[in-house]
Design a protein that fits this description.
With about 180 residues, this protein is of the alpha/beta class. The protein has one domain: 3-Layer(aba) Sandwich (Rossmann fold). The protein is built from six helices and six strands. Helix 1 packs across helix 2 and helix 3 crosses helix 4. The longest helix is centred in the N-terminal third of the chain and has 17 residues. It starts with a strand and ends in a 9-residue tail after the last helix.
Length: about 180
């Protein structure tokens, strides 16, 4: 069995209309969410053999702030293919993982991460957490999937169980949706 963690970047800043999407930093709420989620990921107790991440500024800042808050420096393997990738691309990338790695944490973007959950976790009514993701996998959300595979090359649709899902608002209601 393999374990896959998915961590969506925290809330980004849209105030500079000239900024390229790739270069958008986190906003204040995103910084708070990244720190809160960094502590939660540490407290969750899962050891990650490798972290792979999109090099977009908002992902890099999410990782930096989360690691500082958790007091855990982490080596990151940056992979541009994660930036705005589809689920198919993310699966292809994960299939390249060294089979010695038991647990991989991926930091990236929607809709790719959300779609990856939909592809890997069966839609058969047995996963209440999948139902939550169907409503929304908001910024700074963290999910853990147990993969019923022995080798990363075996990664395919419906091979996972979603065993953990937490959103910033679950830990601090002030980080929930902004009023309409």
């Amino acid at each position: 069995m393999k374990t896959l963690g998915l961590f969506r970047h925290a809330k980004s800043d849209w105030h500079d209309p000239r900024a390229r999407d790739f270069d958008r930093p986190l906003n204040g709420r995103g910084r708070k969410g990244a720190a809160l989620m960094g502590r939660h990921v540490l407290e969750h107790g899962q050891h990650w053999d490798r972290m792979i991440a999109s090099p977009a500024i908002r992902c890099a800042e999410t990782i930096e702030i989360a690691c500082q808050a958790a007091g855990q420096p982490v080596a990151v393997q940056w992979d541009r293919r994660i930036y705005l990738a589809s689920s198919v691309t993310l699966i292809d990338l994960l299939r390249e993982s060294d089979n010695a790695l038991g647990a991989v944490l991926m930091v990236g973007h929607n809709p790719g991460l959300e779609d990856l959950i939909f592809d890997l976790v069966p839609d058969d009514g047995t996963s209440p957490l999948r139902d939550v993701v169907e409503v929304k996998f908001p910024t700074a959300s963290f999910a853990v999937l147990e993969l019923k595979i022995d080798h990363w090359t075996e990664l395919k649709d419906n091979c996972a169980r979603l065993v953990h899902l937490i959103r910033p608002r679950d830990l601090d209601p002030a980080l929930g949706p902004e009023p309409g």
